Design the sequence.
């Protein structure tokens, strides 16, 4: 059948033609301006970092999560809420695993509005481990009013809500640079190489030495960014360790099961190669 | 398939039941001794895999529904509650979420298998039509399920898809707008929309299960097609379903479960979109609204057409055209393996679907739009032009005398006719 390949050939030629038309300089020139405009909008490439929790056997580094929580508490939480987390989560396994008295103390440091009491009045009380993380602002409008009109996003699942996840958060926190000449920055905005469009409302919050680590880790911007990114990954995916551990067991079981099934299948089908009529 | 039942009730209880509601007899005849062509390859194992996926989705879904809150205010947080506080909630939710992708992967392979081996041709037209109906129901169910997360991508997907109905304004002014508001239960996507999507998302899987029963019924009347596409001619061509295909389907299912578990445990969000972890915000449109991967080819077709009404028609047509495949294909033989010309068009069609999937994930501009139109054109030409015309002009390769012949040599008394005898079978059918 010599005629047979013709449709596939026609398809391939059509594809090549379409690509060639696109690549020709005339078309490219027309589009160059649009492309230049678009490059600002395009998401910058985010270099991947090495994390303890990536890979099939990855798990969180408890000490890193504790440091990350410290950075969040002392810096980020001034503007960003984490409304889906409770203080008790800080003591759970597969997380920062603060001892239970430390969790009680961390919760007790905040004042929580509770009530109404039997007089019908709301009242303040110290936080308990079962309380959600206290939000810095009572509502989004208050958050905008205090932040130049920008709304600091809730950080509960931020590590899953951005392409690149913890890599992106690290790149963003370490991505503040001098505004390059010729780049028009809107008032109140900051230049950041990792942020799409490079203009971000969040001011650079981290700098060397602003958080005092107690475990000997160097108090550098790089370490703060790394630790808080890991912490936010845990906050977004608190069952990651459990998932990896169960995954290893399920996959091992299925692999052994597959081998057994393969051998059983081969054994049963071998009956058909004999001359006898197939039977059950 | 019409044949005498060989079921023997083993004890008094089964004898009693056999005279009143012979379910054990039906199960025995249809799933134990059922004569199945001996040459089915691994592409035939996806029917069993799909049954498993349907059961898995219903089982995980029923439990998830116990913890989910179908309100615009509570939906997103209740999903996170499941992920954080419900025992094994993360496993249920990721199994359900990844399960949707795996369900579609298996359904697409199953459909392409039917298309390649001509499993839609007489006497299996109704079987095929029921399969397309299941695919349509799956598309609706998956879309509604995705909306329940009530993240940004959920919300805007619902907005885009429900707005498609407003294109009917071009037919009767006001009709589309009224229809969309009726679907929304208001003047925008909101709480009332979510509750009706939730209700139907719970209902549809059971409708699918019902159609699956009909699909299997329609399969068991003519029996399985097979890679040669020729009919079963003697008992030598078949083996009992059990143990031959229970073990083969079982092995394939375990391999499929490995892939499934790989995604659930090591990349549960790999197939999803990060924007869906941002709570729904009616005031902020995402930069690119993209559906899940399994809808991308259809999305590319929708956007390839510049006119909204015709775009929607093409989107619907891309699935509806499948209903007519049994009559669009004019070939005398079933299996594409014996069709030297059609074979090339078939694989070009498979590539077209994959490329359309890629194009659906890209912004509809420049080269992506050009290619989108080119491949959309081929998608429809394949059904409307290639299938009828190639079947008429093509000379198929010589078919083997029987299913068994290539393996065990010619039959003692080869049957001459390759014409199926559906009428005789229907008369004899006792299922």
Sequence:
């Amino acid at each position: 059948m010599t005629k047979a390949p013709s449709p596939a050939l026609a398809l391939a030629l059509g594809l090549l033609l379409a690509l060639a038309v696109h690549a020709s300089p005339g078309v490219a020139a027309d589009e160059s301006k649009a492309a230049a405009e678009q490059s600002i909008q395009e998401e910058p490439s985010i270099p991947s970092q090495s994390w303890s929790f990536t890979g099939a056997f990855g798990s969180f580094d408890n000490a890193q999560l504790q440091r990350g929580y410290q950075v969040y508490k002392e810096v980020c939480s001034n503007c960003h809420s984490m409304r889906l987390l409770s203080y008790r989560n800080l003591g759970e396994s597969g997380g920062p695993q603060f001892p239970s008295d430390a969790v009680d103390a961390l919760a007790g440091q905040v004042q929580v509005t509770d009530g109404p009491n039997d007089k019908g009045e709301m009242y303040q009380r110290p936080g308990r481990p079962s309380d959600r993380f206290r939000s810095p602002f009572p509502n989004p409008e208050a958050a905008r009013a205090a932040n130049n009109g920008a709304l600091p996003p809730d950080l509960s699942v931020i590590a899953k809500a951005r392409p690149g996840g913890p890599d992106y958060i690290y790149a963003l926190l370490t991505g503040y640079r001098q505004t390059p000449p010729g780049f028009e920055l809107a008032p109140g905005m900051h230049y950041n190489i990792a942020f799409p469009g490079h203009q971000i409302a969040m001011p650079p919050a981290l700098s060397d030495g602003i958080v005092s680590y107690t475990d000997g880790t160097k108090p550098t911007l790089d370490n703060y960014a790394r630790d808080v990114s890991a912490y936010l990954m845990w906050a977004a995916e608190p069952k990651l360790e459990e998932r990896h551990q169960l995954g290893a067991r399920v996959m091992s079981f299925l692999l052994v099961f597959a081998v057994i099934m393969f051998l059983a299948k081969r054994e049963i089908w071998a009956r058909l190669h004999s001359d006898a009529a197939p039977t059950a | 398939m019409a044949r005498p039942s060989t079921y023997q009730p083993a004890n008094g209880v089964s004898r009693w039941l056999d005279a009143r509601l012979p379910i054990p007899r039906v199960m025995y005849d249809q799933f134990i001794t059922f004569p199945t062509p001996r040459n089915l390859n691994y592409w035939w194992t996806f029917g069993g895999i799909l049954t498993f996926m349907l059961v898995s989705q219903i089982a995980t879904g029923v439990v998830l529904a116990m913890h989910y809150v179908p309100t615009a205010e509570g939906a997103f947080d209740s999903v996170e509650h499941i992920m954080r506080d419900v025992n094994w909630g993360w496993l249920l939710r990721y199994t359900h979420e990844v399960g949707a992708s795996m369900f579609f992967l298996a359904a697409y392979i199953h459909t392409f298998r039917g298309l390649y081996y001509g499993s839609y041709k007489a006497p299996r037209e109704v079987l095929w039509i029921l399969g397309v109906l299941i695919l349509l129901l799956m598309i609706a169910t998956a879309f509604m399920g995705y909306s329940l997360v009530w993240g940004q991508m959920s919300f805007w997907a619902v907005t885009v898809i429900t707005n498609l109905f407003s294109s009917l304004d071009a037919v009767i002014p006001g009709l589309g707008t009224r229809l969309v508001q009726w679907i929304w239960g208001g003047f925008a996507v909101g709480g009332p929309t979510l509750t009706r999507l939730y209700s139907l998302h719970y209902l549809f899987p059971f409708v699918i299960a019902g159609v699956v029963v009909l699909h299997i019924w329609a399969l068991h009347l003519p029996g399985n097609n097979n890679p040669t596409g020729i009919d079963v001619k003697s008992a030598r061509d078949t083996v009992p379903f059990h143990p031959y295909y229970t073990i083969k389907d079982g092995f394939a299912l375990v391999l499929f479960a490995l892939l499934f578990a790989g995604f659930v445990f090591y990349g549960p969000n790999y197939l999803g979109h990060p924007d869906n972890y941002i709570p729904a915000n009616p005031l902020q449109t995402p930069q690119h609204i993209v559906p899940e991967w399994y809808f991308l080819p259809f999305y590319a077709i929708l956007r390839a057409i510049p006119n909204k009404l015709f775009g929607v028609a093409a989107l619907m047509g891309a699935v509806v055209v499948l209903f007519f495949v049994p009559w669009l294909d004019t070939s005398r033989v079933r299996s594409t393996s014996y069709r030297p010309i059609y074979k090339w068009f078939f694989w070009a069609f498979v590539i077209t679907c994959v490329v359309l999937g890629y194009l659906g994930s890209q912004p509809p501009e420049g080269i992506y739009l050009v290619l989108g139109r080119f491949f959309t054109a081929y998608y429809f030409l394949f059904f409307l032009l290639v299938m009828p015309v190639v079947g008429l002009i093509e000379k198929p390769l010589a078919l083997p005398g029987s299913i068994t012949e290539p393996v065990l040599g010619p039959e003692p008394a080869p049957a001459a006719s390759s014409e199926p005898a559906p009428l005789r079978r229907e008369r004899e059918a006792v299922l």
Remarks:
- Confidence is low (pLDDT under 50) at residues 413-431 of chain B.
